[in-house]
Amino acid sequence: MSRPAFAYLLERFPAFTQTFVVREVLEMRRRGVDVPVVSLRQTGDEPRGHFPAKAHEGVIYLPEPEELVAGIKNRRAKGVLPKNLNHRLANWGDAPDKMRLYEAIWAGEWLQKNKIRHVHVHFAGIAARTAFLIKELFGITFSITGHAQDIFCATDFRIGLDALIREAKLIVTVTDFSARQLREQYPKDAAKIHRVYNGINVRAKAPERVPVTPPRILSVGRLIEKKGFDVLIEACGYLRDCGMQFECVIVGDGPLEQPLQTMIDEWNLSAFVRLAGPKSRAEIMELSLGTTVFALPCVRLADGDSDNLPTVITESMAFGLPVVSTRLAGIPEQIDHEKTGLIVPERDAEALAGALSRLIQDPNKAHAFGEAGFAKARAEFNRESTVGELRRLLAPVPWWKRFFCLFV
Prior knowledge:
The protein is an alpha/beta fold. Helices cover 44% and strands 14% of the residues. It has 17 helices and 13 strands. It has a seven-stranded parallel beta sheet, sandwiched between helices. A six-stranded parallel beta sheet has the order 10-9-8-11-12-13, sandwiched between helices. α5 (126-138) links the parallel β4 (118-122) and β5. α1 packs across α16 (383-394).
């Protein structure tokens, strides 16, 4: 039996908030790439039925932290821990992030035993630091897909982003915007930085939509500051004051639920704006079928954090919805202004209201934008294409197979 081409090393798998990673793993397997997943954490309260059964196959979970540490300490006390691992533990002392070292020892030994020589990590976060130490201790190479906060914001990890970039065999990021930024920050490593979009499932044909009355504005995301839901609510205030009839449904939960509800109440918008709470994919699809326009007015925070390539925008395009968002990070790579949707300045509620009003009052334009958005989603963000790009980077076809194909 041939050894796996590589393994995924992830902080938690499968994770409800990282459905795109599940899609990627399943597509790799569908393409015949043997990819076990090493998960540092159990999924906890994640709803198991949310993912297909195949997502749970081939997942190796590390022991719970207390058990993991106790097991390695016990081996060390008995003198059976390899010298290089014992030495690294001794030198780490009580410095922060020591758990990454214990994780690296356990995962590295498992990878070594299974003859896996490379791991791929999503997010330059905890799992990436573990991968860094696996390389140091076992010589197993690693690569990273960087997304947004993990590459946009400074951290206090003992192993910095510069070290991860330097030691990684390959760096993938999900937009041209972030690829350019990383190449400018780390010019010595620019050649190994690549852009591969997050892919989604795109049907051969956009689903039939029947917009409801009054027109519906839909938004989906965690109720956190960088999504700009407060700006959307303010924009709805402008629409209401102009006498427009509409409903705005915001799907999701998060720490800003109460402040946002207070804003809705204080602005007397409860007849127009509704916080709908979290919804299943099927429920969001049903809402989308009756939606006029999708809106996500993302903003950049003071610490540099922002969305980079919001999956919900691409998914809305795949539903055939026109989209309104902001000129931020990689969003203009998703939305072609005046073709698949409209882009407005961030934190500009009046401009957002104008864009929404325009699409609500011009159904033909909204329909044309939706059709163009679907075509773009299928051409550029289709999972089969994006995972194909990633596979070529992570698991290239051996030269002898390419040579053989020339004569078949």
